[in-house]
Amino acid sequence: MIVRYKGESNPLALTKNMEYEVISIEIGPADSKWYRIVLEDDDDDGSGVPGYLYPAGDFEIVRDSQ
Prior knowledge:
five-stranded antiparallel sheet
């Protein structure tokens, strides 16, 4: 799935209006949805889990791959 970030840009993370590929959707506290996204400059943190989790409400869906 491709999503567009609606929040404010953060030089250490996401850029406003940029599109990102969601590699998985995970459930967080109170059954909230979180998107796992791998950024271009992500380094392997040694955890074996790619990307980082971001709240789904901060994005709009551009293209659903299903």
